[in-house]
Amino acid sequence: MDPKKEAERLIKEVEAEEGVTLDAEFREKLKNEIAEKIRSEIERKRKEIKRKVEEEEEYFVRFSLNVRLQHLTLAVGVILLIITGLPIKFHESKIAELFFDLIGGIQVSRILHRIGAGLLIFVSIWHTLYIAFTKEGRNEFKELLPRKKDFLDFWQNIKYMLGKTNERPKYGRYSYIEKFDYWAVYWGMVIMVFSGLILWFHNFFLGIFPKFVFDIAKEAHSDEAMLATLAIVIWHWYNAHFNPHVFPFNPTIFTGKISKERMLREHPLEYEKIMKEKLSREGKSDER
C-alpha cells in the first residue's frame, strides 16, 4: 500500500461526499498528514504481528543459569587476556606502544592480564566442581564426550559440503563442532594455567626446576595463547555468532533459550528426545 495514494483517495472521497474542493496548499498538507498516519499505523501493525509471532513461537531451555554464568566469566577472562596479552607478546610493535600509552604502561597491562588469569583459574575450578558435584554437570559432561557418531557426522558433513549428498548430519545435544570447542578449551586451559603460573611466580618455580622448564613454559604460553586467539576469533565466533543462520548474534548462551526452528535445524535428535520424554510424562500423567 502506498500511503500517499491512499491519502489522496480518502481526500477525494470526502470532497465528493461533502461537495467541496479543498484549497491546493491545505489539500497537500492534509494529504501528507494522513499519509504519515497511515505509515505509523502500518508500522505499528507490523510490530504487533511480529511480537505475537515471537510470543507464540516455542522455545526450549538449552543452558541453565549456572552454565551461562560460567561462560560469561570465561568470556570476560579470555577477552581480557587477549587484549592485554597480545601487546605484551608483540611489545616492540607500534600498536603495542600505542596500547601501553593508552592504558598507562606495560605494568598496567600485566596487572590486567593477571586479573584475566584469575578469572580463568576461577572458572576452571568452578566448572570442575560443577561436573563433579551436580547432576546437571555430570549429564552435560557425558553429552560432550566424543563418540563414534561424531566421526561419522564429520564425514557426512564433508560429503555434504562437497556436494556428494543432500543430507546434512543430524546432531543431538552437541555437534562434533561444539564438542571440539569444549575440549579445545580444556586443552588450552591446562597449558595456559600451568605455564602462566610458572611465569607469574617465576622466582618460586626457578628455585624448584631448572631454567629450561621456565623457557618451555614461556614458549608454550606464548604459542598456545596465539593459537587460542585464532581459534576463538576464526572458529568459535564464526560457528557461534557469524554463521549465516544466526548472524549477527546468537542470544542462546545469554538467554539460555533456543527456538523450535533452530532446534529442529541444529539439534533434531535432541528435539526428538525431548518430545519423546514429554509424551512419556503426559502418558504417565493420564494413567494417574
Automatic annotation (TrEMBL):
It comes from the Bacteria. InterPro entries: Cyt_b561_bac/Ni-Hgenase, Di-haem_cyt_TM, Hydrogenase_cytochrome. It is found in: Cell membrane. Its main location: membrane. One of its GO terms (molecular function) is electron transfer activity. This is Cytochrome b subunit of formate dehydrogenase. SUPFAM superfamilies: Transmembrane di-heme cytochromes. Residues 32-59 form a coiled coil. Residues 62-243 form the Cytochrome b561 bacterial/Ni-hydrogenase domain. GO terms for biological process: respiratory electron transport chain. Keywords: Cell membrane, Coiled coil, Membrane, Transmembrane, Transmembrane helix. It comes from Candidatus Kryptonium thompsonii. It is a multi-pass membrane protein. One of its GO terms (cellular component) is plasma membrane. The chain crosses the membrane at residues 69-90, 111-133, 184-209.
